[in-house]
Each structure stands twice: as C-alpha cells, then as structure tokens.
Amino acid sequence: MYTLGPAGGAALVTGYWLAVGSGIGFALSWVLPPLVLAVVAGGVAGEWMRRVTRYRVDPERFHVRTGVVVRKRLALRRERIRSVDLTADPVLRVLGTATVRVGTGEQAGTEGTVTLWPLRRTDAEALRATLLAHAARPADGAEGADDGALARFDRRWIRFAPLSFLTPALGAAAAGGLIQVSEWFGLQEELFETIGSWFGLAPAVLVAVLMGVGLFVVGGVATVALWVEYWWNHTLDRQADGTLHVRRGLLTTRSITLEESRLRGVELVEPLTARLAGGARVDAVATGLATGEEDKTDSKTLLPVAPKELADRVAADVLREPDTSPTAAPLTGHPVAARGRRLRRALATVLVTEAVLVVLGLLLTPVLLHIAWISALVLVPLAIVLALDAYRALGHTLTERYLVARSGTVRRATVALQRRGIVGWTVRQSVFQRRAGLVTVLATTAAGSGAYAVRDAAEPDGLALADAAVPGLLRPFLVAGPASEPVSAPGPHPAGR
Q1: Which secondary-structure segment (H or E) carries 486?
Q2: Which of 43, 252, 449, 487 sits a CA distance of 20 to 30 A from 281?
Q3: pLDDT above 80 for 44
Q4: What digits encode the pLDDT tens for the residues 152-167?
Q5: CA distances from 477 to 319, 384, 442, 453 (A)
C-alpha cells in the first residue's frame, strides 16, 4: 500500500514518454504490469510484516518483536510511554484497521518509537487504553464536571483556512506545475499565447494583478481542501482516565492522546493573517510529544485556528482554570528601547535586500535598479509596521501558577508555562542589549520546545521576573545589592498594557 504512491507517480511519467513515442496501447503494456507488481509486492510485504510482528503487554513492559531479515525486539517500560496515536487512511478504514504508534518521547533516534501496522480498530483502541492506564490525573484536577467535550468542530472555522502563507505557495506551485506539464507535451508556447489572448492589450500591471489574484484563488481552494482533510470532525475531549484526546481527519483519521500529567502549559499561536481575522490556535506544551520518527508539530495542536475567544476558553479548560485563561491575562510591557531594536533590525533587513539589488543592477542590468527603488517604496513602510507590531506584542506577567510571555508578529505566540515546570533559566544579553539596558530571559523546561523566552525586557524586570517565578533558583547568580534592597517581583512598566 505504501508503494502505491511512488509507483503510480513513476508509472505516469514513464507512461507519458512511452505514449508520446509509441502510442497508448504500447505504453499501457509497459506501465501496467510493473505497477500491478509494485502494488502486489507492497501488499505481500505488509501482510508478511503483520505476520512476523508480535506484541505483548505485561504489568511492567510493552514487548514488541518484529523484522524479516533483521529481527528486532523492543521492551518499553510502560511508565515511559508518553503517547499512543492511531491513524487510519481510507484503505485501513475500509478494512476496519489502524496504524498504532507508541512513543516514549525520546528526542534522538527512532528506538523510542514503535509502529504496529495494521491492527484491528478494536484491538488498537484496547491497546491504547491498556498502555495509557498508568496515566494519572493532575493533582489539582477534579473529577466529573471538567470531563467530556472541550471543543467540537465548527464549519465556520474553515474561513481561516485560506488565511495562511501556504495559500500563495500552493498557487505558485500550481502555476509552476502547469508550465512544466505544458513543456512536457510541447504546448508551452500555446499556453502563453492563450493566456495572452485573455487579456488582449491590457496594461502589464493589470495583467500581473489579475494573474496574482487567480493564483491566490487557486492556492486558497487547495489550502481549504488540505485543511478540510486534516481537521474535519475535530474533537477535543478530556477522558476520565486523565488524558486529553484529539480526533480529526476526513479521509485519513487520526487519534492522538496526551496525558494531562505531562502537560506543562499551553501556547496560543496567532499567525499574522489569521490574527487579522481574529483567529488563533492552541498548542500543548507537554513532555513526550517528539518521538524522533517524524515531525510532531501537528500532534501538539489541541485546537486549529478558530476565533480567539474560543481559543482562550479552550486554553482555560485544558489548564482547568475556572475563571479566565492565563493567555488572556494583562501583560507588563517592555521598554521603548525594545521598539528601537525591532525598528533597526527590520530596516537593516530591507537595506541589505536593496543593496544586493543595486549591486546586481550596476553589474548586470538597469532593470534591477528600478526594481530596487520600487520595492523599497513597499518594503520600508511594511518593515516599520511589522516592527511596531512586534513591539506591541511584547509582554510578560506572573500569575499564581503560570509564567506568561508573548512575542512575535508574523507568528505571535503567547505561552502560559507552569511555574513548577521551569527547571532552569538562561539569561542572554548582547552588546547592543547591554547598552540599551535590556535582557532576554529564557525559561528552560522539559516540555514543548525546551525553552520559552521573555525577550528584550528591562534588565531589572527580567531578572526579578525569573527570581519571582521560581524563588531561589536564580538568586545565587544575582549580584547582591544593599541588604535593604532585596530583589522583588517586577511591577508594571510605564509602557505596560
């Protein structure tokens, strides 16, 4: 089954060349037998792997034996198991089976991940329940009222799908693919002539704008299709066994389980385009999500991009905060010097880009000189707007249980990190930050990305924040002042919001 895609792609390319040279019948006689052979071989290999794979669960370990040429035996301690994810593509769904991935959260290598394929759906569900039976409810959790549905799929979320940087990328890819295919068939000139006839004698600027709009429409449709396949029927539930359970998918269904005991906070992510429409998504900050076998970015997403009010409510429910989400707490602002740093970096980026265009224009063609000054008229104001927006996003605060920090403009992220989950601090201060009296403080944790930054805070505020968040952890490294002036938690900065 896994060989069907590559084999089909290779068969189509080969079939095209054969069809052009010798006719469709001759091409099919060459393409179909290898394609059928590849599919049959993939099916036989999958069945063989199923027959040679055995697993057993005892009170302490999960034992797996697999392999054809090289036999492999694994024994995972059950208390080390962090995730049991189920995936079923359309073929597996028809057969009533699923792929089970058991992970221990190890960051390096694949030894901490076991994939069982395929298992009957009922067996897969039973195996997941058994392996996660050791999950413990949080110490401050409560039975009953908080269990059940935390979020349910809403078709209105689809409006956020095209508001992604993937939309122009897919539009450009579609245009490039169309040009490449037309070249294969020797129709590239005819394609360009046809497109040119649509616009007649229209100005070049108008043609470029209309073509850009068309590519955005094509990219938007493709993005919506991908989003629907990935997030259709999304549900987020809290189970009675102390786990958060995410189900999603249209054709390929996915079922992801996260132990609440591994949760160290949440991250509210607002991509720029979605933020302009009032959208945000919720990611889990938890240990044991990365298994080393594949990127687990989407496995940590508890809620796709949805209205920000809903995202804040889901974040509060996930963290068992009855009143309000820490991600919506008022934040202490950062000094004006932080704004200057962002403006300088943004303008420096534009300056470097324009300098490259100018140099190439002087060496190659004057056209690039015109592109340089025209692009500067657009990029300089855009850089200033983004820099000011990045400054407005900066903020931090401490609540009773959480360190909350926010930063970013293209990807604005607000993290609410449990103070008990902070295991260390990293204090960074460049030469330019030192001159401006700023400091970046990173809270180190075993969950999520491993460290979360409070960027460009005033130096006294940043150090006091770290000392107050986990009392005693950073104090031995602070320079002691007079006995009458102890280090204290930061108060609101004049630029605070």
Answers
A1: none
A2: 252
A3: no
A4: 999 999 999 999 889 9
A5: 32, 38, 15, 19
Distance CA 217, CA 360 (A): 33
- Distances from the Cα of 334 to the Cαs of 275, 309, 417, in angstroms? 21, 25, 19
**pLDDT tens string 445-465:** 998 889 999 999 999 999 999
Residue with tokens 């699923």: 98
Neighbours of 217 (CB within 10 A): 13
Q: Which residues does residue 427 pair with via DSSP β-bridges, in sequence order? A: 441
pLDDT computed for residue 193 by the predictor: 84
Q: Which of 151, 455, 138 is nearest to 314 (CA)?
A: 151
Supply the angle between the helices 367-393 and 336-363 in degrees, to the nearest 10. 170
- Residue 297: predicted pLDDT: 52
pTM: 0.81
Select from 3.20.20, 1.10.260, 3.40.50, 2.30.29 the CATH code of 394-477: 2.30.29
Q: Using alpha carbons, select from 75, 89, 157, 83 the residue that is nearest to residue 117.
A: 89
